Amino acid sequence: MAFKGKYRPKNPHKVIGDINEITFRSSWERSLMVWLDQNSKVISWGSEVIVIPYLYKADNKIHRYFVDFIIKFEGGEILLVEVKPNKQTQQPEKKPKQSRNKYLKESLTYIKNQNKWEAAKSYCEKQGWVFCVWDEFHLKSLGIKLYKPLAKLRNGRTTRRKTKSNTAPKVRRNATSTKS
After folding, report:
1. Interval 67-102: pLDDT, tens
2. What are the domain boundaries of the chain?
3. Any idea which residues carry the catalytic annotation?
4. What CA–CA distance (Å, rounded) separates 178 from 170?
């Protein structure tokens, strides 16, 4: 299940683009948005406001790449940042029990990402900017904690999703006890 939603910044003056259209497509993107919004060294930031054309070599057609983030820091440094799971930054390997279709899909995703990132690096070089791919390990190294989404209950209310750290052991009732 994909985690997607709208982000409402606490510091809207820092946002590049329409503050009503800030969309996160993963919990890591949402966590980074919170970090950018609250970080005093970040002058401004935007989500999916930079569009770069790129050639997808699998179909030999030009496509549009919406880069996840543009970030402007105090010292004048400007980064274009793509947030991806580490797995998608590595060339896939065929596993013994993996289906051919799954391997093909992972391979095409890898090729598409590489084509996008080549175009983004070239674009950034012309602008004097830096292009980066940040995975979960890099985000953690920045001190960014993963946002834990709320789970919907049957009654419509929400609660934090259970993780190993916040689940309490179940208490068993004594089989011999009687109700009053």
Report:
1. 999 999 999 999 999 999 998 899 988 888 878 888
2. 5-160
3. 29, 68, 84
4. 19
